[in-house]
Amino acid sequence: MNIKHVIESQQFSREDLEGLFALATSLEGKRTKDLDGKIMAALFYEPSTRTRLSFESAMERLGGNVISTENAKEFSSAAKGETLEDTIRMMHHYADAIVLRHYEKGASERASKVSSVPIINAGDGAGQHPTQGLLDLYTIQRELGSIDEAHVTMVGDLKNGRTVRSLSYLLGKYKDVTVSFVAPEALRIGDDIKEYLSAHNATFTETDNLESVLSISDVIYMTRVQKERFQDPEEYERLKGSYIFTREMADRMKESSIIMHPLPRVDEIQPEVDDSPHAAYFKQASYGVLVRMALLKTLLG
Ligand code: NCD
Question: Is 3.40.50.1370 the CATH number for 130-285?
């Protein structure tokens, strides 16, 4: 795989993805010294639990070390007015890779322009979250056995949800995939994604009616309405409860189908769904460590 920085999910070829996923599976349960002596910096300007800690756990499991700032908007020199570029120009002397989460779309791309070490985009505003896309795709492969021919339904805030965007680009690389986008009018998926899917011969449909695709989907991918991206709090209040997945709905899904969510959830999936055989969201989060191990090993090994 010939990749230096991880900025957007469409940069991975299908071959890259297959190699990465095979490596991820081979690393399950392993502790190695592959990255002994290497340092990963986690530079986070927005809240995170899973992404930051699973990256840190992945690095530690490969024998590497971690330095991190989890509230860089307030606690780094950004609070004093330092530009992201200056922060990165210094950080690349401190670490062998920088995992960056930022509130602005395009931040990782900007960082990559001035960084001599790999920048890994861990979420750039409403832009992308490519490593979440990778672990989501890996979850589909592990749980369904194959990604080709899958019918994946994404539900909720498709306008602001960066994980949906990254996963959609990845699905465009597989054969005979069908994507159903389920969202209220105000939160519909962007035209860039639809154009990409059309150009890659993936079938997609758009609706605001989850019921219409519930029993024909292989994956129901629920998402949180992204409160932090709303200018108008009333608009958020109006839209936040748009889709709530219940146990009764889970029981009407296709037998082998799964429910995913990048987490954190607010109320999009009721707790009663958690012990449904279809619920895959906690497993999905656990696969994040494997996929991030594979990625770090590939970039730094
Ligand atoms: C997502 C994110 O940050 O975009 N969280 C995550 O990394 N698992 C989804 C979200 O915050 O809704």
Answer: yes
